[in-house]
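Question:
Write out your own:
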Amino acid sequence: MKNEIIHRGFVATHLLLRRSESILLLRRYNTGWEDGKYSVVAGHIDPDESAVDAMLREAWEEAGIRIEAENLEFAHVMHRRKVNGEERVDLWFLCETWNGEPHNAEPLMCNDLGWFPWDNLPSNLIDYVRTTLFLVKNGHKFSVYNDQDLLHFSGANSLIQHASVLGQLL
């Protein structure tokens, strides 16, 4: 089985663009997935592309801004396991310094872009994005998420399992 690919999930990058106590969110439109809901700048890593390069590319493609790699700060890793067997690994980066003013650079796939306070997020925010924002805000660097249920997340010194209390905390 040498050099044989056994399983390959999707790897995506997500950008937490922060200005003061607000975060940039985009409302998905005409994409066929979670349309009408808000998300962050995000996208899959292309073949032969690093996670950082993918994040820089997505920032330009979706929000029309340029980011220097040294201005990206690692924020979180989420392993998403779906009931249908699909798996994703989401790499989350925080950025507070960029060039240009964020704007809707993909009007065919996004019909709103705006700054939202971290403590007053829109109700139509994609579930796993809301969960990750909560975890990042509270200093957690790793989580496992199964569709709409948070299974594990990192605590101060350990991995906390079956965190069904998260819904009460949000």
In short: Residues 8 and 114 are 34 Å apart (CA to CA).
